[in-house]
Amino acid sequence: MSTQSGYSTEGFERNEHVVDGVRSVVYSAGNGPPVVYFHGGGTFHGFEWARDWTDRFRVILPIHPGYGGSADDPDITSLADYVVHYTALFEALGLMRFGLAGASLGGRLATEFTLTHEPMVKRLVLAAPAGLMAADCPPPPYATMDPRDIPKMLVADPAFIARFWPPDADAGFMAARAREQVATARVLADGEAADRKLRRRLPRLKVPTLVLWGGQDHVLLPGLAKHWAKILPSATVTLIEEGCHLLLDESPRARAIAADFL
Length: 262
Hints:
Elements: E1 13-19, E2 22-29, E3 34-38, E4 58-62, H1 79-93, E5 98-103, H2 105-116, E6 121-127, H3 150-153, H4 158-162, H5 171-187, H6 191-201, E7 209-214, H7 224-231, E8 236-240, H8 247-250, H9 252-261
Helix pairs in contact: 1-2
């Protein structure tokens, strides 16, 4: 098991909840109205950035089953299954209404949750959400890429990612990444069909929504922002020119804009 970790959880409260027999880890910190954050397809970079929000909100950071310290749930094979999981978790936490934010995979999950639980979500922040596909914004050729190049795609400053994904990452660290990649692939497998369905459902999203995108995002190209804007004409869409895929982690300006909106 790897002991490599470049982030600190100091100041965050850690709790475990059993949801339908599955152990789920939830971190939280701060005071104020509740804001839930759904992480993306990896937990290696943690959530230290969320400290910027803790003077204004009670920030709640659940770890999806199949990721980080949460247990695996073989019954979760779709985003809809994650929505069921979080419906039960929020009931256990006594969360009735809250702000919701999500990044990448977490942005797509936050969208799906809001579409089916609109009365619970006060405001929605999506940071480079997954889900929509476009011919002018092709995904990276992961199958032919050197795995050592992937971390550099996530950030504008390569030095930033080295702290979280070390060049000498050990076998345990890489096994944890592989586990999370499997969990992500399982729920995002049906790309084109999911795109069509999402395009049909998105116009029903009535919750005030902010879409943030990094102008240097190499994973989900910034041109995708205009596709979200076209389908959600009432949403606020903001491009952070200096930002990359780990937008909230790397950009204090993105965090401030999101907090103000929430």
